[in-house]
Design goal:
By secondary structure, this protein is α/β, with parallel strands linked by helices. It has 6 helices and 15 strands.
Length: 235
């Protein structure tokens, strides 16, 4: 099964990603759990944007929203869901609510549940996740919009579904300085920066990766005192 990590929000997901996600979910059942940060009345429009492409392709799908706020109600057993989606928004908030459930999420993915992360949902899939920040040791490393309300770079434990740290909106927000700074900290040796409208698809068993969409994934790998940079486009 596949871990789909999209570098943008629900409105800019490649059609191929929705097609493949639905195709992988169908044989497992019809329950698709969608986690969104916020109260139900606030997140209703975003729920429609995320669930719409699924219902369009699969009218029999049963969407089960999980609203991450003070009164979060989780499904009885997440690993019985046919698919799991985490939306975009404020990454630190998603980390606060989802990392405590990391064993359950990781178990579900290991058992073959497809995972789809949109923007923030892609970032927190990593073992070491970028929570936010647009400066490192006082030096500007990214536009302030990429800081998630934080000034200094903050790296936190993520869901540990993949080893590489993830940055999103790589092209439109010009955030390659973020993964470079992450490598400087010495906490990780590899990062992937995903463009808008682009998906990094990871085989949950073999770890093999491929790129879907119009942009590219930029891989940054620490090699001694150097950083190796590699670009991967669809096809």
């Amino acid at each position: 099964m596949t871990i789909f990590l999209v570098g943008s929000g629900a409105t800019d997901v490649p059609d191929q990603v929705w097609d493949e996600f639905v195709a992988e979910v169908k044989p497992r059942g019809n329950r698709v759990v969608i986690a969104l940060l916020g109260a139900p009345d606030e997140e209703a429009p975003w729920l429609a944007e995320v669930s719409g492409p699924i219902i369009q392709r699969w009218p029999d799908a049963v969407v089960e929203p999980v609203f991450l706020f003070e009164e979060t109600e989780w499904p009885a057993s997440l690993d019985e869901a046919a698919g799991f989606i985490v939306g975009g928004g404020w990454t630190p908030g998603y980390l606060d609510y989802l990392v405590p459930r990391r064993p359950e999420v990781a178990r579900a993915v290991r058992r073959g549940t497809p995972y789809l992360g949109l923007s923030a949902g892609a970032m927190l899939a990593a073992k070491h996740a970028i929570a936010g920040g647009w400066k490192h040791n006082g030096r500007v490393i990214a536009p302030e919009i990429a800081g998630e309300g934080l000034e200094e770079l903050e790296i936190r434990d993520g869901l540990a579904l993949i080893g590489s740290t993830i940055a999103v909106h790589a092209d439109t927000w010009s955030v390659l300085g973020l993964p470079l700074a992450v490598l400087e900290t010495g906490k990780v040796t590899g990062c992937a920066a995903i463009d808008e409208g682009t998906c990094l698809a990871v085989d949950s068993t073999s770890g093999q990766t491929r790129t879907i969409g119009r942009g590219r994934v930029t891989w940054l790998t620490k090699d001694g005192r150097k950083v190796l940079v590699r670009h991967e486009s669809a096809g």
